[in-house]
C-alpha cells in the first residue's frame, strides 16, 4: 500500500466528514451539524493527512500552541486501512511539528481506549472536561 502523508494540506469539509464516516469516528462527532464541521475544519492549526492517491484515508487534526500543549481532537483512519501503521505515523508526524516540551493530549473514544497505552501514551486520571452549556459554579 503506497500511502502519502501531508502536513497542513487543505481538505474540504466533505472530505473530513467522509473520513469520519468511513473510520466510524463519525458516530461520535456532530457530522450533521454543517456549521460545526466547517468551523472544525477551518480552525484547526495542525492537520496531518494520509492519502491513497486522491482518497483521504487518515487524519490527525489538532489545535495547538506548538510549544506546551497539543490537543489531538480527531484521529481517524478509514476502515479499509486500519491496523497498518497509518494511525501511528499520523501521530509521529504530529509530534514532529511540536517543540520539545509540547505534550500531546486527547480523549480516547471508548473503542480505542486501549490503543494509546500500547503505543506510548500515559493515562492521566486528572484530566477534566467541562461539557458545553455546563455552568461554572462552586
Ligand atoms: C484508532 C485508530 C486511529 C488507530 O489507527 P490505525 O492506523 O488503525 O492503528 P495503527 O496501525 O497505527 O495501530 C498500531 C497498533 O495498535 C493496534 N490497534 C489499532 N486500533 C486499535 C484499537 N481500536 N484498540 C486497540 N488497539 C488497536 C493495532 O493492532 C496495532 O498493533 P500492532 O502494531 O501490534 O499490530 C483507527 O483504528 C481508527 O480510526 N479507529 C476508529 C476511530 C477511532 O476510534 N479513532 C480514535 C478516536 S480517539
TrEMBL record:
Enzyme Commission number(s) from the entry: 2.3.1.-
Domain N-acetyltransferase: 3-138
Domain of life: Bacteria
CDD domains documented for this protein: NAT_SF
InterPro entries linked to this entry: Acetyltransferase_Butenolide (IPR053144), Acyl_CoA_acyltransferase (IPR016181), GNAT_dom (IPR000182)
GO molecular function, one term: acyltransferase activity
Name assigned to this protein: GNAT family N-acetyltransferase
